[in-house]
Amino acid sequence: TRAPVPPGPAAALLQALGLRDAPQGAPRLRPVPPVMWRLFRRRDPQETRSGSRRMSPGVTLQPCHVEELGVAGNIVRHIPDRGAPTRASDPASAVGHCPEWTVVFDLSAVESAERPSRARLELRFAAAAAPEGGWELSVSQAGQGTGAGPRPVLLRQLVPALGPPVRAELLGTAWARNASWPRSLRLALALRPRTPAACARLAEASLLLVTLDPRLCHPLARPRR
Amino acid sequence: DAEPVLGGGPGGACRARRLYVSFREVGWHRWVIAPRGFLANYCQGQCALPVTLSGSGGPPALNHAVLRALMHATTPGAADLPCCVPARLSPISVLFFDNSDNVVLRQYEDMVVDECGCR
Fold first, then answer.
1. Are the Cβ atoms of A109 and B90 closer than 8 angstroms?
2. How far apart are CA A119 and CA A107, in angstroms?
3. Which among A7, A93, A105, B116 has the fewest CB atoms less than 10 Å away?
4. C-beta of residue A190 within 8 angstroms of C-beta of residue A137
5. Residues of chain A positioned with their CB less than 8 A from the CB of B40
6. 3-class SS string, chain A
7. Low-confidence spans in chain B with pLDDT less than 70
8. How sure is the predictor about A50, in pLDDT bands with cuts at 50, 70 and 90?
9. Is the pLDDT of residue A8 over 80?
């Protein structure tokens, strides 16, 4: 039983589990985000009550539904920003001249059959001090509208103070629910202080993507008898 | 890590037996974050009469299975016994790293045998 698994059956098993290839392993310096641990612990009956398959009384999990986020789905991905390593360290926070950041999310792992139900952009800013009234964040699609006027802004949001991450739903704004998946998503972020004040630094950006793969959701495929 | 079957044969009535699947054993521990393994279980046992009629604590057998068991009891060579197979399964969730360095939580249906039945 400890002999190496032949490639044929192993590949077939991975395919049945919806994976193209066996992942290579844990990347270095990539901790598991707390939100992913929370979602896992909420879904895992063996974690909820060790040694038993039964859930705690009162806890009923719907199949193909992510309770904590309140949407349908059987796949949740935490996608890190690929633009961070190439981004130069932000210039000193000149008053009124905040830098613009481009964040890049690799969506190549998402299968075309998957239906999106949530795409939550999460941003964490850092600054020495928060200005009165906070900042105004604008998000637009990077690489569009250059040379022909300003880029269309996908969303604007107030960043009130430093602390909890800024969250913004992209589904329906950055791309339509029924649109095909882009291979990657590039967004331009701009932060503008509402009163003359120092700028913040983009410390972290990620995308929490929830999708439903109907091939792996049997309640959808099989009508209830 | 499977519950041993006594005598090497089908070993009693059809029911769920303990089977623990360790992701380390199958070599997936480098990319599966959690769980380390799970109780998949499996079905084994005989579906002869009267086990098939009683359901053996699990769900009632299909009418077709009862007829096959009756056929086998009256004419053993005419029909095989019904099969002891999973009758109720439940999902598990797996947290892992994919090849794009994403942290992924996927729910997989029908991964754990909760009950077995004669089918």
1. no
2. 11
3. A7
4. yes
5. none
6. CCCCCCHHHHHHHHHHCCCCCCCCCCCCCCCCCHHHHHHHHHHCHHHHCCCCCCCCCCCCCCCCEECCCCEECCEEEEEECCCCCCCCCCCCCCCCCCCEEEEEEECCCCCCCCEEEEEEEEEEEECCCCCCCCEEEEEEECCCCCCCCCCCEEEEEEECCCCCCEEEECECCCECCCCCCCCEEEEEEEEEECCCCCCCEEEEEEEEEEEECHHHCHHHHCCCC
7. 1-11, 51-53, 55-57
8. very low
9. no
A207 touches chain B (CB under 8 A): no
B105 Cβ contact list (under 8 Å, min separation 6)? A36, A39, A40, A43, A75, A76, A77, B93, B94, B95
Inter-residue contact A123 to A209 (CB < 8 Å): no
**Is the separation of the CB atoms in B48 and B83 below 8 Å?**
no
Instruction: Give A205→chain B minimum CA distance, Å.
Output: 13
- Average pLDDT across chain A, whole number: 77
Using the CB atoms, write b or e for B53-79: b if 16+ within 10 Å.
Answer: eebbebeebeeebbebbeebeeeeeee
Nearest CA to B98 among A83, A160, A106, A35?
Answer: A106
From the list A36, A45, A79, which residue is nearest B95 (CB)?
A: A36
Work out the percent of chain A whose per-residue pLDDT is above 70: 71
pLDDT digits (tens, 9 = 90+) for B24-40: 888 888 889 999 999 99
Closest residue on chain B to A21 (Cα):
B99
pLDDT tens, residue by residue, A86-96: 665 555 455 55
Cβ distance A97 to A199 under 8 Å? yes
Q: State mean pLDDT over A105-125.
A: 92
